[in-house]
Predict the structure of Bundle-forming pilus minor pilin BfpJ.
Amino acid sequence: MIRKESGLSLIEVMIGVLFFSIVSLSVYNYYNRSAEQHYMNNVSVVMCRYADALSYYLQDSTASNGNGSVSLSTLVASGYLPPIQETSGVGEYEIKMYVDKNKNGLIALYGGEYYSLTSESINKFLGIRGASAKDNKIISAGGYYSLPVSDFTGFRTVNLRGLMLIPSIQTSGQNCDRGGYDF
């Protein structure tokens, strides 16, 4: 006579472990992707804050007109940014601001090659001011503006992780939408 077993068979246990593993990996991937998007949003908030300040600085008639870079201390001294800790970066990334002779502004986010943030991934968080550097040109989101890279003295594309273009002709629609986040 064959006795009926009252426990789980090995195949049932393996199916349960496999199912639990798949669910665990899915949850991990969801939270990892969510954390990365939240981080990119925070980086874009800082870049947008600098972009708004640089935009107002460039519209000011007393702002310097010529190729070069603009420092955070210049924006703070001009009153376009509140007094902040003198750091030109966010997280492990470095932010640099450039101006050409026509008062077009450029904000570049730099990071080493081991950082996961890329221009393509952060551009969706930068909105209409997002830009990319291709073929010695800086092209705005949607292709509305195209400026030569050579117009911005000191600008480099090595380790470039994000780029924002602030055109000299401003409209209210070009202000950054920070998605409810603000300082």
Observations:
- Residues 37 and 122 are 9 Å apart (CA to CA).
- The mean pLDDT is 79.
- The two ends are 77 Å apart (CA to CA).
